[in-house]
């Protein structure tokens, strides 16, 4: 079998074999049906430029969940400028980590689960794939629920007669009102339609959704400042609890939470960097989409949240609720619909595309990319995400648990690619079950990677679950990533 080794940073992709009569590319000689379908195949043409990556991050950042998360940092007792610094330092770390995880997928044109085959083995890669896929299912449901809440606000604003149907106690099922179910399923179907049309449609959607929400958020921030008066916007929103050097550990905690919040899309960023024209394009897109974009996002969030106190008499961290209190119907419609579009954008890119590849990787012959995504969408209904989200501590708690599993995976993948394999991957061997393949290992599983993952994840989870270790819970991603990297480095020797 011919071997192909992609040089570090290279975007050279081996050609497909001749296509069949329908024009579809045939499976290259030597590839296994257990590991290959058209969706998992290395790309022939990588077309995404820096703007497409930038738009991806705009859609990923500007969601209802993103604003609620940023606003929730005020509850830690930090001032506005301290929250701003924590957000920027955290996103700077995310930028570096995304560039590192992006390289193997961009260089070889393969999605995240296929890239994992080089580390965990061609069959063992299903372990990190399924872990990421299940996490995406939970977040997919939560984000769909948040987007549907924005729609419900618009409906009730103009059709107050439906208010009884928004009461879960009078007209509800499984913890969600009848009106809530209607909004949730409508958003569920709309997202499925966008996803079903493929990655090109998704790219066009996020190219539009990212800038659109920017315009509305700047208008909302300007309106709130106008209503409040600049002099009336305070900086001590959380009720300052710390002074002097006492604030440093709290800011470090907030920074860690930022990294944990982005840990999901960061881990499977290869699903998108594989489309990059060059690694340089991916780096530029990450720079504009993360530090620069997040600076604007942070400023708008801090200003808008701060203005809710003098305007409405209480601190409101949910932008949908803020929009719902505006007296102008047109503004309410525009704002709520924009937040809905933005949340659809992040949901598709972060929580639909990922499980589509992940579940397809488990059984490529039976599960296509579209089928994998729809499996995730259906599963998201049965977990009743509104019950998960309606716990006041669920955002931080979810981030901690999520980071416990994702951190070790990230650490192992980075150490293997940069330190063990020295950025060299034999692309053809990612698709073969032949015992002579570079990534077959024993039974197709690299048990050293699994042995490094399990204790690292267990320790990180204990930091979250054991009350006596709750001081370490907010750092579960870093603990897991560090331990996973250390254990694998020792075992890989």
From TrEMBL:
> Which organism does this sequence originate in?
Paraburkholderia graminis (strain ATCC 700544 / DSM 17151 / LMG 18924 / NCIMB 13744 / C4D1M)
Give the molecular function GO annotations.
nucleobase transmembrane transporter activity
An example Gene Ontology CC term for this record: plasma membrane
Source organism phylogeny: Bacteria, Pseudomonadati, Pseudomonadota, Betaproteobacteria, Burkholderiales
Signal peptide start-end: none
* The UniProt record lists the keyword Transcription: no
Note the superkingdom of the native organism.
Bacteria
Record localization: Membrane
Give the similarity note: Belongs to the purine-cytosine permease (2.A.39) family.
Keywords, comma-separated and alphabetical: Membrane, Transmembrane, Transmembrane helix
The record gives the membrane topology as:
Multi-pass membrane protein
TM annotation in the entry:
53-75, 81-102, 137-159, 179-196, 208-226, 246-267, 287-312, 332-354, 366-389, 401-420, 449-469, 475-492
Q: What is this protein called?
A: Permease for cytosine/purines uracil thiamine allantoin
Where is the major localization of this protein?
membrane
């Amino acid at each position: 079998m011919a071997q192909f080794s992609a040089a570090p940073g290279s975007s050279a992709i081996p050609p497909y074999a001749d296509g069949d009569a329908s024009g579809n590319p045939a499976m290259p000689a030597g590839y296994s049906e257990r590991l290959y379908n058209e969706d998992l195949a290395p790309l022939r043409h990588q077309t995404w430029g820096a703007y497409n990556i930038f738009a991806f991050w705009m859609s990923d950042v500007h969601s209802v969940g993103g604003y609620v998360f940023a606003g929730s940092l005020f509850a830690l007792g930090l001032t506005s400028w301290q929250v701003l610094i924590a957000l920027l330092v955290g996103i700077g770390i995310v930028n570096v980590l995304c560039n590192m995880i992006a390289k193997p997928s961009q260089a070889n044109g393969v999605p995240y689960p296929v890239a994992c085959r080089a580390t965990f083995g061609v069959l063992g890669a299903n372990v990190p794939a399924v872990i990421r896929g299940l996490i995406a299912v939970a977040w997919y449901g939560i984000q769909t629920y948040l987007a549907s809440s924005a729609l419900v606000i618009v409906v009730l604003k103009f059709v107050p007669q439906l208010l009884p149907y928004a009461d879960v106690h009078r007209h509800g099922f499984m913890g969600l009102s009848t009106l809530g179910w209607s909004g949730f399923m409508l958003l569920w179907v709309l997202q499925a339609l966008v996803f079903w049309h493929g990655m090109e449609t998704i790219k066009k959607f996020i190219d539009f959704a990212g800038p659109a929400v920017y315009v509305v958020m700047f208008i909302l921030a300007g309106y709130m400042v106008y209503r409040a008066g600049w002099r009336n916007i305070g900086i001590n929103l959380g009720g300052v609890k710390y002074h002097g050097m006492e604030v440093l550990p709290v800011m470090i905690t907030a920074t860690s939470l930022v990294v944990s919040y982005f840990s999901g899309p960061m881990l499977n960023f290869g699903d998108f960097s594989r489309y990059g024209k060059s690694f340089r394009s991916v780096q530029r897109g990450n720079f504009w989409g993360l530090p620069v974009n997040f600076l604007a996002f942070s400023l708008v969030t801090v200003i808008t949240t701060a203005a809710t106190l003098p305007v409405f008499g209480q601190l409101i961290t949910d932008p949908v609720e803020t929009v719902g209190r505006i007296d102008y119907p047109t503004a309410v419609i525009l704002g709520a619909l924009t937040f809905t579009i933005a949340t659809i954008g992040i949901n598709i890119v972060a929580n639909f595309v990922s499980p589509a590849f992940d579940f397809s990787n488990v059984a490529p012959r039976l599960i296509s990319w579209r089928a994998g995504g729809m499996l995730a969408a259906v599963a998201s209904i049965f977990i009743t995400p509104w019950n998960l989200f309606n716990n006041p501590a669920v955002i931080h708690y979810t981030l901690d648990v999520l980071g416990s599993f994702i951190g070790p995976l990230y650490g192992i993948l980075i150490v293997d690619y940069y330190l063990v394999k020295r950025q060299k991957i034999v692309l053809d061997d990612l698709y073969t079950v032949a015992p002579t393949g570079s990534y077959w290992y024993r039974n197709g599983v690299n048990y050293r990677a699994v042995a490094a993952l399990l204790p690292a994840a267990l320790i990180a989870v204990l930091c979250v679950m054991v009350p006596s270790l709750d001081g370490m819970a907010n750092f579960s991603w870093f603990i897991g990533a560090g331990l996973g990297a250390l254990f694998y480095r020792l075992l890989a020797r």
